[in-house]
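The records we work with from here on pair a chain with its fold. Taken together, the tokens spell out the fold as the letters spell out the chain. To see the layout at work, look at the sequence and tokens printed below.
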Amino acid sequence: MKLSCVPVLALLVFSSGRAATGEVLDSRPATVLQVVTQAGYSAKLNPGDSKNGPFITLTIDGDVVYLNLEGCKADGCKRVDATTGYDADTSSDEVTEYVNGWNASHYTQAYSDTEEEVAYLDSSYLMTGGYTRANMVAWLKAYLDDLTDFADNLP
């Protein structure tokens, strides 16, 4: 019985057990823009000003997606926040229920602005310490998939 543990133990000791790796990228706005455009998206970088940080705009199926780069310094940014807004009757119970239901079952966050009559869908991606191209592209694709679902079903 003791001998049967040896093959299992050998597999545990000698298997690599490592995740697939990729180049760790810096979080400067130009690098984020390059990742997005090389993934096939048409994107434009706005450097921001004294009040607002840099952001990237994408136009996808007529919708404008903002990738707001937050906490930026000379060596890079801390995170990117994706956000898109849709005109909606935010005072209606139907929109409120939809937004609340969305948040109960999705990782992206929905909220409504009653002053602007807009329903938003947001998602954040942390870049502190670096990130891989594949991981950021997968995050963006997941956000865009959720965005399609959100927009298609928004009352």
